Amino acid sequence: MFEAKLQQAGTLKKILDAIKELLTEATFDCTDSGIQLQAMDNSHVSLVSLNLRADGFETYRCDRNVSMGMNLTSLGKILKCCSADDVVTMKAQDAADIVTFVFEASNQERVSDFDMKLMNLDQEHLGIPETDYACVVKMPSAEFARVIRDLSQFGESITFSCSKAGVKFSSTGDIGTGNVKVAQSSSVDSKDATTIELQEPVTLTFASRYLGLFAKASGLSERVQLSMSPEVPLVVEFKINDIGYVRYYLAPKIEDDDGN
Amino acid sequence: MFEAKLQQAGTLKKILDAIKELLTEATFDCTDSGIQLQAMDNSHVSLVSLNLRADGFETYRCDRNVSMGMNLTSLGKILKCCSADDVVTMKAQDAADIVTFVFEASNQERVSDFDMKLMNLDQEHLGIPETDYACVVKMPSAEFARVIRDLSQFGESITFSCSKAGVKFSSTGDIGTGNVKVAQSSSVDSKDATTIELQEPVTLTFASRYLGLFAKASGLSERVQLSMSPEVPLVVEFKINDIGYVRYYLAPKIEDDDGN
Amino acid sequence: MFEAKLQQAGTLKKILDAIKELLTEATFDCTDSGIQLQAMDNSHVSLVSLNLRADGFETYRCDRNVSMGMNLTSLGKILKCCSADDVVTMKAQDAADIVTFVFEASNQERVSDFDMKLMNLDQEHLGIPETDYACVVKMPSAEFARVIRDLSQFGESITFSCSKAGVKFSSTGDIGTGNVKVAQSSSVDSKDATTIELQEPVTLTFASRYLGLFAKASGLSERVQLSMSPEVPLVVEFKINDIGYVRYYLAPKIEDDDGN
Fold first, then answer.
1. CB 3.0–4.6 Å: which of A58, A88, B152, C198 could bond B208 by disulfide?
2. Helix, strand or coil, per DSSP, at residue A51
């Protein structure tokens, strides 16, 4: 039997927003340590890794490991039926082909339950090596989302250039070139601060489209962390309040010899 | 000569919102007791009944009975031209083929008048028998609209099950099953209360699509009243502040012998 | 070298909103007295005239006259990248084929620059004779926009009838006729006042579509000025706070002998 209770159904809504444009279906692996999801996006370009720790839930019980394959469009319809501040409980019997979501309104006069059919999905678990990154940038997630949205208008790629002074995001296309420079903040304590831990300057180029999809997770956290090293996938991480994180991995574009 | 004046043009806008997706054209019957509209929806499945009492208007005069057939799309264009707090006057000469709407802004610097051509529409008046219902539910109209919207995502039908404890709304479809239980409120005085007057428990199933169209009337009133008896059409009633009501009638679905 | 700095990038955004549906491309003529744009709309029916005085900018320098032909869709993409309260600087070298926009966020932690390719556009400068108008109406621009939007639903033309008492806007079409009467205000000092300077009563008819496009400039100014004389183009003018104006010219429709 699996049963997990979360105080704020809104967290589930935001998690779905963070993955639903990358994945149409996904398997949530539930163990006694928590819930994990790991999957390549539909085009097999980027990797999504979601981790929700058991201790982050109000109550959590998982007698046997369960893998729940869900259609994310169906999940979206069910999550539309709850308010952000409903209490939500997810339940499944061992070896069940159904997961149940129970939503309780804060005034307790409305209780809804939704049964969703589960799917068997192929899964391949990818080992993600722990890496020491040459550069780690922490910045407001809204600022990150905005820079990506703005520059995506210009070109299919965005170049991240990190130095002690700050990060420069650049994109070039038919209509011209855009550069957005975000300076390292003088005060590092504010939640609006941009901070940079730098072993060496890094310049990497990524596909605008995927960066834009990662930025959909901005609702989950006020802060985003970008970890970069030469020739290694970028990691974009959003913490999920007290319970876990979602991370996206995206390989940099390799420039041709002639610089194109 | 017919002339009726209403302090708040917004009431007319909301009445139109409540019927315009069910009816493309409608005849407003004006007598010295008020204005009435009764019509089957475009697909001849549900019945709409609107009643505006003469004494609910600021001023009201109707020398001879007039039947004004209106195209509701045209009426919508005219009502877009007034503000919710404009004073509105409707006027027609006896046997006229035109109705005039006059809108006066509260600051009195803008006065607009719109002449709309009337239409001759076929009409059949249906006797609606007064019935004693087995179950009458009163609940917040926003809550009703929300339940219908949520469950309409799942299936083409929604089942209403009423008992002393509360009302359960259910729907089943390809992705699974949803149940929303609204409990009878302990305090019945609040405008957010759900109250149930029950002669006998009732379980009836209705087409989601029509329930969704009725719920468009939620803007008219904070409360909705659902009256149900076995094998008899559901009545969904929204009071219109001090002036009348709009009621919708919808026959329950008959289940096949095999339960489908 | 050309360089002009504006405290509020929002002003540029609103100017673009005021012209982008009339023009797809436009030439901004920069001289030491300021920036001017004059162009027939895409269908060669109306004329747009924009004037931004050098002294209205925070700093302004123009060593040699420059004509900058811009694609307004591209300009729109660039202006999407700034906040309304960013400081914006436009720069171009003499005889350059590129213009640079620099946006500085008020917290100074983000600086963006965008290079846009310029275009060579054919230009014909039209002499606009200074005229003494028979009637000049000043009214709130939001009210003007609203009247035009409302009446555009009815017919392709809107008739403006100006007298001492006020202005009547009228339109007739398939569904009927609409008249909106805006009275001259008793108090003329309020920014909501409608005032009329009248040499002689004027009645003129204009194409709804173009009036609607001019009304897009309402964001630029709380007030609009309509100048009319018989058989002469209407002038619709919106002041741009302390820096200039945008004016639209539209010839009245000529009625046929039989009144159609």
1. B152
2. strand
Neighbouring subunits of C (3+ Cβ pairs under 8 A): A, B
- Reply yes or no on whether the pLDDT at A258 is more than 50: no
CB within 8 Å: A80 and B176: no
Nearest-CA distance from A3 to chain C in Å? 45
Contact call for C77 and A175, based on CB within 8 A:
yes
How close A135 comes to chain C (CA, Å)? 19
Task: Tell me, yes or no, whether A183 lies in a domain.
Answer: yes
Q: For residues A74 and A23, is the Cβ–Cβ distance under 8 A?
A: no
Contact A39, A27 (CB under 8 A): yes
User: Which amino acid is it at B46?
Assistant: S
d(CA A96, CA A2): 10
Q: Does B111 lie in the same domain as B172? A: no
Residue B103 lies in a domain: yes
Distances C218 to C9, C36, C41, C159, C245 between C-alpha atoms, Å? 17, 20, 18, 20, 12
Count of Cβ atoms closer than 10 Å to residue A60 Cβ: 21
Do the chains contact at A183 and C114, CB–CB below 8 Å? Answer: no
Residues C178, B81: C-beta atoms closer than 8 Å = yes
Domain enclosing residue C86, as ranges? 2-39+51-117
Give the pLDDT confidence of A80-133 residue by residue, as tens digits: 999 999 999 999 998 889 999 999 998 778 999 999 999 988 877 777 888 899
Task: Please tell me whether residue A170 adopts helix, strand or coil conformation.
Answer: strand
Q: How many CB pairs under 8 A join A and C?
A: 49
Q: Which chain B residue's Cα is nearest to C146? A: B81
| Residue C73 sits in the same domain as residue C179 | no
Q: Please judge whether B80 and C153 are an interchain contact, meaning their C-beta atoms are less than 8 angstroms apart.
A: yes
Q: Using CA atoms, how far apart are residues B53 and A80, in angstroms rounded to an integer?
A: 39
pLDDT tens column, C15-74: 999 999 999 999 999 999 999 999 999 899 999 999 999 999 999 999 999 999 999 999
Contact list, A170 vs chain C (CB under 8 Å): none
Q: ipTM, 2 decimals? A: 0.88
User: Residue A126 domain-assigned?
Assistant: no
Q: Is the pLDDT of residue C125 over 80?
A: no
Whether the CA torsion C204, C206, C212, C218 is positive or negative: it is: negative
Q: Determine the Cα–Cα distance for residues C91 and C8; give it in Å rounded to an integer.
A: 16
B80 contacts C175? CB cut-off 8 A:
no
A139 with A113, same domain? no
The chain C residues in contact with chain A (CB within 8 A) are: 71, 74, 77-78, 80-81, 98, 107-117
Identify whether residues B142 and B246 lie together within a single domain.
yes
Query: Do A112 and B150 count as a contact with CB atoms less than 8 A apart?
Result: yes
Q: Quick one: A142 and A103 in the same domain?
A: no
Distance from CA of C171 to the nearest CA of B (A): 10
Confidence of residue B258 (pLDDT cuts 50, 70, 90): very low
In this predicted structure, what is the pLDDT of residue C257? 43
C38: which 2 tokens? 């004059």
B260, pLDDT greater than 80 = no
Say whether A98 and B176 touch across the interface (CB within 8 A).
yes
Residue B24 confidence (pLDDT): 96
User: Domain total for chain C?
Assistant: 2
Judge whether C103 and C88 are in contact, CB under 8 Å.
yes
Closest CB to C176 among B80, B107, B114: B114
Q: Which residue of A has its CA nearest to B153?
A: A77
Q: What is the pTM for the complete model shown?
A: 0.91
C71 and C167, same domain (yes or no): no
Where residue B105 sits, what CATH number does that domain have?
3.70.10.10
